[in-house]
Amino acid sequence: MTDTPLLHVRNLHAYIGSDRGVVRAVDDVSFKLASSAALGVVGESGSGKSVMARAIMGLMPAHSAQTGEVYFQGRDLLALKQKEREAIWGKQIAMVFQDPGRSLNPVVRVERQLTEGMRRHLGVSSSEARARALSLLEEVGVPDPERRLRNYPHELSGGMRQRVMLAIALACEPDLLIADEPTTALDVTIQRQILDLLRDVQRKRGMALMLISHDLAVVAGRTDRVAVMYSGKLAEIGATRAVFDAPRHRYTHALLGATPTLDHERHTPLNLIAGSLPTPTDPPPGCRFAPRCGFVEAACTDPGPVMELVGPDHAVACINSVPVGADDVVGGELVGR
Question: Given 3.40.1400.10, 3.50.50.60, 3.20.20.150, 3.40.50.300, which CATH number is that of 7-229?
Answer without folding.
Answer: 3.40.50.300
